[in-house]
Amino acid sequence: MSENVGRWLRDEIENAILSYEFAPGERLDETVLANRFGVSRTPVREALMQLDAIGLIEIRPRRGAIVIDPGPHRIYEMFEVMAELEGLAGSLAARRLDKASREAITATHSRCEQSAGAGDSDAYYYDNEEFHKAIYAASRSDFLEEQCAQLHRRLRPYRRLQLRVRNRLSTSFSEHCAIVDAIFAGNGDEARRLLRTHVGIQGERFSDLVASMAAR
Amino acid sequence: MSENVGRWLRDEIENAILSYEFAPGERLDETVLANRFGVSRTPVREALMQLDAIGLIEIRPRRGAIVIDPGPHRIYEMFEVMAELEGLAGSLAARRLDKASREAITATHSRCEQSAGAGDSDAYYYDNEEFHKAIYAASRSDFLEEQCAQLHRRLRPYRRLQLRVRNRLSTSFSEHCAIVDAIFAGNGDEARRLLRTHVGIQGERFSDLVASMAAR
DNA sequence: ATCGTCATTCTTGTATACACGAATGTTGAC
DNA sequence: GTCAACATTCGTGTATACAAGAATGACGAT
Question: Does B143 sit within 8 Å of A81, measured CB to CB?
């Protein structure tokens, strides 16, 4: 239970949305939520406000809050932006790499290698996140790091779906290898290019995503 | 006065912060704000919550809200990300340009030409905004458009400072010309490259910015 | 004189009460 | 039977009251 009820509720409701417990399009009734969590409406409203700012729900004045349904097209757009930001992070990381960042990338990369080798999709999902976060941090740009982390978080559920696709694990890891090489070689342009294609969802990978979304 | 007091207050306080009426580092007392705007603390808290999510203030639990002081370095980082996003918008615009977007860009571009020719810095400041927004819209990516608009808004005060620098008006406009040419020619890579350097603040332009910030 | 401890005060965090607009169901007319 | 107007209900928006933690100042000890 976080420092105050409002933030705790924000996380709680956010998780519920990201895990599809609250379905896209569903209306979130303040009183119902307040009862469910055993608090008053005030912190519930604060939590909803924050979720609105993050973009997970939409608060229509006097008409309540509904869970936003991004839809395949918008998700594609979000990945498109994510790819661009990660590309920037990679190119900066290649230029500014220091010892600590290098070690962090190496560590998370080898953890990815283990889980990919073991074919453990869930473990890879987690290690992959850490790997990407290490690259954000290596960019040495706090603002970029924050933006990347925020968008990464919002795309989390779809990324998870992606990993389920056959062979994606080993493909993803070999792409990681090339990315690490480029960054460690100080080749910013190459790191940018590789990360862009690694993160972006083009062609059949997009159809795969849509298919797995439709499957739920 | 917007649809509800909370959002109105958000805009009101946001403007006060962006216009330096509330100085960076300053503490924002809920009761004081409530009295000042003649409302209760409830909508004030809602507004502060939203500003926290936007990143303009920081709410420290049980210790009140303070206006964030980005500092030159972080502002540089924000421009760096802005440059990247605008570059993406430009490259997408070049690929996806349709009649309506083409006309919107042409219209705003020629308005920039007028105000730049007249040496009217304030008018150019406004027309320039519209020009960039036209490019965001031309990208045909709603998410990217929103992200660009949000960051653009947050960088507004510093952009204004930049334009004060000698000769920046005509330099900016000639860069616009090249950008328009690249987009209309369908040359996405060129548009991206030009926008990145147009938006970014490298070298002496960064020192200029820091200098004008220190001058206040 | 300085530092630590305790009490007081002030501000934030949460709950509750009230007001107002939107949604909905009912009744009547065509 | 269908549609429209009105009344009622329900939920959001705002204000106020209360609780609890943090900042501040005074007092005492070293």
Answer: yes
